[in-house]
Specification:
The structure holds three protein chains of three kinds. Chain A is an alpha/beta fold. Helix content of chain A is about 35%, strand content about 20%. Chain A has a five-stranded mixed β-sheet, sandwiched between helices. In chain A, strands 2-1-3-4 form a four-stranded mixed β-sheet, with helices on both faces. The longest helix of chain B has 15 residues, at about 40-55. In chain C, α3 packs parallel to α5 (about 125-135). The radius of gyration of chain C is 19 Å and the shape is globular. The two termini of chain C are about 15 Å apart. Classes of the chains: A alpha/beta, B mainly alpha, C alpha/beta. Chains in contact: A-B, A-C, B-C. The interface between A and C is large, with 61 and 63 residues.
């Protein structure tokens, strides 16, 4: 995979393949991307209706939020167009997927900034444990800088901020097909140490750093990077922001990338230990961990 | 009146973001909501805003709204009637 | 696993803590009044940001009203709990608009004058939860759910599921929502306000009133209680979530999502419909919700509808916080062994003839069902049980 060109834009599919025009006209990127990804992955898995639809999004439908704020300004006390307000709640993505599918199952949206996708994934795993057969789970965000200055927040003007969505079908039973196991997910907020959290996470699953083949990481500060280098060997570490850019839910992309690598199997790091740890430290005080195994 | 109807059709297409539809495609007497053009209840709210924003006429309640928003003809008639009352 | 409620905190238009809220409910005193700034009937919390800031000795500029209301309710709920590391503790909060009350102010300024302020950074939903976590000394699982008007109930449900899934032993869960121009103008554009105080379940209901507030419950399992020594107030017996999948904002005529949520909650609790002693309804006072919810009642309870009421005539519709605020009211209903009143009810809906409770009615209350339904067709029901 190539390094992301800072000038590059979101690659959009033809959304008309997935969403009828009358529904599509009100949707911003985060909704359209999510629906397209969801329908695509359900088709791949041969699933008609998931038992649950769970989305992690840090900023939700922020284009629609901004649009409604602009309308308040321009209406100046006059009549106000409601559409952008109606599709502005963070759960519009999960809700629209359910509406399109006429799905009456469990539906949830997690919005804990850079831990949104990990929390959605934990929710999905809980659901599988409780008896859901198939869960549609994903992470999505659209890039919008008026409402939230991510570069300032992360104190890093060099970041290449992106929009993106990645969706998965999580199943309790792989039905005999070749796949990848999601072993565990961790969400740690207001942490003191990446090392302590990572060791605790791996230990609770009966693992250690030695059992990990490859680490896909997003770390934007020196202290975090030093800690990661102290736990893992340099050749095991791969910065997924180089190929995917920065978004608070890009650990979903990393999971997709990790799954592809485990299925492919050719990466030398995965020869002995077919396990990938995704280490999401985009915001230094948060740590999201996802453990995948072939 | 014909100019007004054409204007309404153009405004509806623009405000409701109806792709692939041209003013010529909308019949004057065709139903707007549900059948015909296939607009929904959110669009109905937008049409109320459109009438006030571009034509200065207000729909005061749901019952009136249901009648006025039936077709291009009923919308145009309402605008003309309300403006006549105002003068 | 038994899940116990051991703490609660609440701030609404009818009170700044649990006791004040209960007293207002009992004395039929609404907190909804005409707002000076907007002219609308709103359920405003009777504390300014400055007063809240002073109470917590916080620097004014950095805190949204969402965080401030949340801090007030969360500190009441948390009370004397200590953050012992041997009790795995997490916080799950919820909000629809996050720090929008500050965001919109600075966005409008920025658009008009080109002044950009770092307060824009409080918009992110999860920030409010982090502020509360930091104040209470909680790290680790810090989460936020956002499902519009069912958010608060979903936060509580999610906390309970994390406990059942052996991830956490103790959770503080709830929600916080300020009155922001964004929502006030947003609901205005939908044309669903009542120009007087709302009349849930009344045939002449005209719409909703918006409100603001925050509420949290502390949930503990038996292991956590053995260490904390907190006294159980009641139990969270079950929960259910389902999707209406009818329309982005409107509820289906038959209340399918609502009925599914209620049924799922009862299945989870292991009880039959006749065990429910009181239902705290979503009951916003809109034509659509109250009819849809009534149809759901019919399909779930048949001819044996238990006592029910909506408390939104007291607080207004507090959006994401509603499910958490009403969870506290349900806990209080069990504590005091009474159903809660529905204000402004005179005429039953012609479609159903259903009559909500209009005052405190002391009776045996073992199981209470609480409903919250949001945009996106998100429907959640919680069931509380006398301990």
């Amino acid at each position: 995979m190539r390094e992301l060109d800072p000038a590059s834009e979101l690659i959009r599919p033809d959304y008309s393949d997935y969403i009828p025009a009358m529904e599509r006209r009100r949707m911003s990127d985060v909704q359209k991307m999510s629906i397209a990804c969801s329908l695509d992955c359900m088709q791949q898995a041969g699933i008609g209706q998931p038992d649950a639809i769970i989305v992690g999004t840090s900023m939700g439908c922020c284009v629609n939020i901004r649009s409604f704020l602009d309308r308040i300004l321009t209406a100046n006390g006059g009549p106000l167009s409601p559409t952008s307000f109606i599709v502005s709640t963070h759960n519009t993505v999960a809700g629209q997927i359910a509406l399109l599918l006429k799905n009456h199952g469990y539906n949830m949206t997690h919005t804990q900034n850079s831990l949104s996708f990990e929390q959605a994934l934990m929710d999905a795993m809980l659901g599988i444990k409780e008896g859901f057969q198939h869960v549609l789970v994903g992470g999505a965000d659209e890039e919008e800088q008026s409402l939230y200055n991510m570069r300032a927040k992360l104190n890093n003007e060099q970041l290449h901020l992106v929009s993106g969505a990645s969706f998965f079908i999580l199943s309790g039973d792989h039905g005999g097909s070749e796949g990848v196991n999601l072993l565990d997910v961790g969400s740690y907020g207001l942490i003191d140490s990446i090392t302590d959290c990572t060791e605790h996470f791996l230990l609770s699953g009966g693992q250690s750093a030695k059992d990990i083949g490859l680490v896909l990481y997003a770390v934007n500060d020196k202290k975090g990077m030093a800690e990661l280098n102290s736990i893992f060997r340099r050749e095991q570490l791969f910065d997924y922001q180089i190929v995917a850019g920065t978004s608070f839910t890009n650990s979903a992309f990393a999971m997709h990338y990790g799954i592809d690598m485990l299925l492919d199997g050719s990466n030398p790091c995965l020869r002995e230990h077919k396990k990938i740890l995704i280490c999401n430290n985009v915001i230094p005080e948060n740590l999201g961990l996802i453990l995948l195994a072939a | 009146m014909e100019d007004l109807k054409y204007e309404l059709k153009r405004q509806i297409i623009e405000e409701l973001k109806l792709e692939d539809i041209k003013p010529e495609d909308i019949q004057d007497d065709a139903p707007l909501i549900g059948d015909g053009l296939g607009l929904d209840s959110i669009d109905a709210l937008e049409l109320v805003v459109l009438l006030e924003k571009y034509h200065g006429v207000k729909i005061m309640d749901e019952e009136i709204g249901k009648k006025v928003l039936t077709s291009i003809n009923t919308m145009a008639d309402f605008i003309v009637e309300e403006k006549a009352k105002a003068t | 696993m038994k899940i116990f409620v051991t703490g609660m905190g609440i701030v609404t238009a009818i009170g700044l803590d649990a006791e004040e809220n209960l007293n207002s409910l009992g004395s039929l005193t609404t907190g909804i009044s005409r707002s000076n700034s907007s002219g609308l009937m709103l359920g405003e919390v009777k504390l300014s940001n400055e007063q809240l800031m002073k109470k917590f000795q916080l620097p004014a500029e950095d805190y949204s009203r969402t965080s401030l209301l949340g801090l007030l309710a969360a500190t009441e709920a948390w009370a004397n709990n200590k953050n012992d590391k041997i009790i795995r503790t997490g916080i799950i909060s919820s909000t629809s608009v996050g720090g929008m009350d500050r965001t919109e102010k600075y966005y409008f300024d920025a658009r008009k004058n080109g002044i950009v302020n770092s307060s824009l950074m409080t918009h992110c939903n999860g920030r409010t939860t982090e502020r509360i976590a930091a104040r209470l000394g909680i790290s680790g699982y810090i989460g936020t759910v956002s499902t519009a008007c069912s958010s608060g109930a979903n936060a509580i449900m999610h906390g309970a599921r994390l406990m059942e899934g052996n991830k956490l032993d103790r959770v503080i869960a709830g929600g916080s929502e300020p009155l922001a121009d964004f929502d006030i103008k947003g609901f205005s554009s939908l044309g669903i306000y009542d120009n007087a105080i709302c009349k849930p379940f009344d045939d002449n209901r005209m719409g909703l009133n918006l409100g603001e507030g925050a509420a949290f419950l502390v949930l503990e399992n038996e292991y956590s209680i053995s260490i904390s020594n907190n006294k159980p107030i009641c139990m969270l017996a079950g929960w259910g979530n389902a999707t209406d999948a009818f329309h982005q904002t409107a509820s289906s005529p038959d209340g399918k999502g609502a009925a599914l949520a209620m049924t799922n909650a009862m299945v989870k609790s292991g009880i039959t419909v006749d065990k429910i002693d009181y239902v705290n309804a979503h009951g916003t006072g809109t034509g659509n919700n109250d009819l849809s919810e009534s149809m759901a009642f019919k399909s779930v309870f048949g001819n044996n509808l238990p006592a029910f009421s909506s408390t939104k005539g007291f607080t207004g519709h507090t959006l994401a916080a509603a499910g958490a605020i009403e969870a506290v009211y349900c806990v209080q209903a069990i504590q005091k062994q009474t159903v809660l009143p529905n204000l402004n009810f005179t005429t039953p809906m012609k479609e159903t003839g259903m009559k909500p409770a209009t005052g405190f009615q002391r009776t045996n209350i073992e199981f209470v069902l609480s409903n919250s339904f949001g945009f996106g067709g998100n429907c959640t029901s919680l069931i509380f049980q006398k301990a």
